[in-house]
Amino acid sequence: MVHRREVIGSLLALGASPAAATCRARKTYVGGAPFTGLTAPMLEAARASGALPDDAALDAAFGQAMERARPVAATAALARAEGPIWTRTQAAAGAQAERFYWASAGKAHTATAVLQLVEEGRLALDAPLSRWVPAAPNARLITAEDLLAHTSGLFSFQADAALRARSGYKSPEEALAAAFAHPPEFCPGAAWSYSNTGYTLLGRIVELIEQRPFHEVVTARVVDRLGLTETTILAPQQSLAGMALPAPGPQASDGANDDVTTPWAAGPVAASAADMVRFWRGVFAGRLHSHEITSRRFARLYPMFGARVSFYGLGVTVTDLASASGQADLWLGHDGGLPGATATAGYSTARGAYFAVAFTGPGSPQATANLLLSATAT
Fold first, then answer.
1. How many angstroms separate the Cα of 194 from the Cα of each of 18, 232, 266?
2. Fewer CB atoms < 10 Å away: N or C end of the chain?
3. 225: how many CB neighbours lie within 10 A of its CB?
4. Is 217 strand, coil or helix?
5. Pairing between strand 243-244 and 99-101?
6. Contacts of 107 (CB under 8 A, 6+ apart)
7. Lowest-pLDDT choice from 3-7, 37-41, 189-193, 261-265
8. What is the DSSP track for 135-150?
9. What pTM was computed for the model?
10. Distance (Å, whole) CA 112 – CA 100
């Protein structure tokens, strides 16, 4: 059982004191213009069926991608809304590759569980963070929606130099204490800034509402509901046999020796590429929450990192390939990455196909996904 008093007590013991609000009120958003190119028919089309090309075309594209990227290990999957899933995995001698770590792509799973609670009336998107974690800076002004959309202004714990420099596992309490020691970047609602802290707090909110560990909640609400036999929602410090481990290069930055369970609710998924495709098919098919909730996830899309290429909703991203490469295509999903492990998964509006690609070591999962999606035109 997880108790609110225990959570707050842990934060206080680690040196996080209840912070006086640095902002007197929420602020009006003044960041870059939200993305408006995603339409309702595009979301509806994600439920349409179809046939994949012959496996040989996809095998050839995968082989070409592996020759270019030369990752330590890689996995990929492609599918339509229904029907068989094409999938392939390759690994260097001695490398494990039964499941891959999807890093921040797992935020979509966390957000799905949170939005199920919203749909059930057990959590409101405008509920203040102070209801659960009053120790957080600006807690009374930050909403659950801010945490989902990265508009809280909270400092992201992985940007703390001292925390990042330490190798091994860091608990959610340590991560939050490090984040709370920094002033917020802006007043809630005023701007957009990617914050792993927000998703760690969502994990705590889920635990406090459900009164059981976060990984058990998401397993029941997502994994079991879809029958995903090749997905694990990682528990803190869990060591998963057969998982492809991050393979950072010699020039990797701080964080290369972190434990993959440190991000916790900000990146909790180890899975096969096929199961990541099944997850996204489940999202768009309405098997995890209503189509109304799916539309709400994509209703307001903030520009990420100051560029007009990727945009963030509620635990989802939209990548506009017309801005990135001139292709008339939108990818609806989520990327992930940390030193030595990168991933992408979602749905292509132009190709009408679901994709999932994860690497350890060098290479670009996005480039591989694009190559595979291009093969669907043959």
1. 23, 25, 11
2. N
3. 14
4. helix
5. parallel
6. 199, 266, 267, 315, 334, 336
7. 3-7
8. TSTTTTT-BHHHHHHT
9. 0.93
10. 20
**pLDDT reading at 338 higher than 80:** yes
d(CA 272, CA 85): 12
The answer to whether 85 touches 278, Cβ cutoff 8 Å, is yes
Q: Distance (Å, rounded) from C-alpha 146 to C-alpha 151?
A: 5
The amino acid at residue 358 is A
| H-state helical runs in 30-158 | 40-45, 55-69, 107-119, 144-149
Whether the CA torsion 297, 110, 247, 97 is positive or negative: it is negative
Decide: 299 and 238 in contact? Cβ < 8 Å: no
Helix (H, G, I), strand (E, B) or coil at 276: helix
Sheet strands (E) in the chain: 73-79, 85-91, 99-101, 231-233, 243-244, 269-271, 302-303, 310-312, 317-320, 330-338, 341-348, 353-360
Torsion of CA 230, 252, 151, 271, to 10 degrees: 0
